[in-house]
Amino acid sequence: MDNSNQKIGKLITWSTIYRVLICYFLFISNPVLLSAQFQGLNPYVYNSPISIQVPAPRHHIPLNGSFQAPRKLYWYVNPLLENQSTRAISLLSQALDEMLSYTTDHGITFIQTSNPKKAQLIINGPPSLPDPNQAQLPTIEQQYYSLEIQKQKITIYLGGTAAAFHLYSNIQQWIYYYTDIAPYLFPDQTTYPLNCASIKDYPNSRYRGMHLDIVRHFFRQEHISQYLEMMALYKFNVLHLHLTDDQGWRIEIPSLPKLQTTAAYRTGSQVGPYKNQEFDTLKYGGFLTRNNIRFLVKKASELGIIIIPEIEMPGHAMAALAAYPHLSCNGGLLSHQLTPANNAIQKPNHPPTSGSKTLAKTDTLLSFEVAKGWGVFDDVFCAGNEETFKFLETVLADVIGLFPNSPYIHIGGDECPKTH
């Protein structure tokens, strides 16, 4: 027994040693493998943070020299711009502080000043700005910024709050260059210069949107929050959030509790190719609470993003009808079948045939259920039912209140069969 244990111990010991050695030679002793994502990057091309910016600035003119940050860096911001864009200016100044720390081997103390002539970092803005409480998409002019980097001074012009967010997103990408890419391309350096340049940037379109359907596949607050951060990084400014459909209802409406208890969950989901029409039997769903929505709207606003909610109508309403069937044209799902005439649930549509005097064709009403599969369904909100309008007015009043920054509320309107 002792010899056997000793052999096992030796085997385990040598096995561990081999694994450690393999890891060492593959990874620790070979930094190229650790930085495989940077292989092929030409240091002559990627010699400044602006070289990795996505999307690239509209105008970029390289200049001679690099910015020399002093130990005490005085910075000035236009008071009107700061008052209306407090959050954006705060984020931008913090990002600039961090970014400049990689350009010098001495510490930098940021000191705000009210005297622009004393400042080495100047942030200017237009003489007037739009009402921040009015829900609207920023104009192209309000999204324009310029950045002049000189040896002793950095001068920034921001067309509005949106421009501050866009420049902040660019600086975030620049920081990534200084922390991850520059150390790989220039391993002998500990600091990396901020090259002088003249940059002017603005988007082609006011509306640069992304869409997220959280009905068929539910995403929670934390996932949508990450989605917003990725949008901001690449300067998308509108999130079209798809909240209701046949397969689920994803927003809390307290006065209509069955939207949370019934419409938000389905008893299975379609799996595999659509043509196979196969379904699992797993309960699936969830919804965003009002607090979730408020958090996301605030988070989006702090990143310069507007969330446009979508409430589908009059079609794509199976989830809502499962909760409130009286809003449909029939009050339930019609099922055609042959039944004994005297046991018919409803009056027969047709008299018994001569060959079968005891049978009649009848319509049976079945309960609606939240759709498991994809596609278009015949049952929709009934336009001839006054209760439908009361329901939709209640829903829209809540939604409008929860999304005060959005100039639009999307109401679907597509794929509405007229079968019933």
Annotate the secondary structure layout:
Blueprint: H1 2-28, H2 31-34, E1 59-66, E2 72-77, H3 79-84, H4 86-101, E3 109-112, E4 121-124, E5 145-149, E6 154-158, H5 161-185, E7 195-201, E8 209-213, H6 221-233, E9 238-242, E10 244-245, E11 248-249, H7 258-261, E12 265-266, E13 270-271, E14 278-279, E15 284-285, H8 290-302, E16 306-313, H9 318-323, E17 333-340, E18 359-366, H10 386-402, E19 410-412
Parallel strand pairs: 2-3, 2-4, 4-6, 8-9, 9-16, 16-19
Antiparallel strand pairs: 1-7, 5-6, 5-7, 10-11, 12-15, 13-14, 17-18
Helix pairs in contact: 4-5, 6-8
Task: Give the tags.
single chain; 420 residues; alpha/beta; 21% strand
Structure description:
The strands form 6 sheets. The protein has a 7-stranded mixed β-sheet with strand order 1-7-5-6-4-2-3. Strands 8-9-16-19 form a 4-stranded parallel β-sheet, with helices on one face. Helix 4 runs parallel beside helix 5 and helix 6 packs parallel to helix 8. It is of the alpha/beta class and 420 residues long. The longest helix is centred in the N-terminal third of the chain and has 27 residues. About 9% of the residues have low confidence. The radius of gyration is 31 Å and the shape is elongated. Strand 5 and strand 6 form a beta hairpin. It starts with a helix and ends in an 8-residue tail after the last strand. The protein contains 10 helices and 19 strands.
